[in-house]
Amino acid sequence: MSSDARPALILGSSSPYRRDLLARLRVPFEVATPDIDETPLPGERPDATALRLSRLKAEAIAQRHPGALVIGSDQVCTLDDLQIGKPGTHEKALAQLQLMRGRTVTFHSALCLLDSRNGVAQLADVQTRVTFRNLSDAELDAYLRIETPYDCAGSAKAEGLGIALLARVESDDPTALIGLPLVALTAMLRQAGYPILGA
């Protein structure tokens, strides 16, 4: 397949971090913001929430862009089966970090590549285990005031100063924690017949 024959590639996300990650692949893409309800369903497992939302995001964008390959992604942080979402405020973010300090949490970075030409959706849940340092309240508060990660699940941006909060990161995909698992995505694009390296 020549590069001219490739379908449009659309990232269904408002996240600048996902946009920066996708740009690493050096392929042309567009960005569109999905408008979906991200509330977890009653009794829904955190990994199921992330997978469902990643697919809903892709489907919402695919309806507006027939013939495109659409990327949807969502991330959920869990500790002891408790779902930890985006804090929204300084107080909630501090409470999250206090809960997680000195402990290991799991980030579910879900990915959906939806081929709107044929309706085929590829899904993956890439898990990252993160151990937080046992930092003082003053250190956690200082971090939050510098980075203000209130729109970030788990309140720690590993792509920024949040890396100082972490003692250990375990994952098969180094980009998953930032929010877009590129190892999984490049495999999905290859499966969909979308060349990354021009082959």
UniProtKB/TrEMBL annotation:
Q: What is its EC number?
A: 3.6.1.-
Q: Where in the cell is it found?
A: Cytoplasm
Q: For site (Important for substrate specificity), what residue positions does UniProt give?
A: 17, 75, 159
Q: SUPFAM superfamilies recorded for this chain?
A: ITPase-like (SSF52972)
Q: Spell out the family assignment given in the record's similarity comment.
A: Belongs to the Maf family. YceF subfamily.
Any idea what job this protein has?
A: Nucleoside triphosphate pyrophosphatase that hydrolyzes 7-methyl-GTP (m(7)GTP). May have a dual role in cell division arrest and in preventing the incorporation of modified nucleotides into cellular nucleic acids.
Q: What is this protein called?
A: 7-methyl-GTP pyrophosphatase
Give the organism's phylogenetic lineage: Bacteria, Pseudomonadati, Pseudomonadota, Betaproteobacteria, Burkholderiales
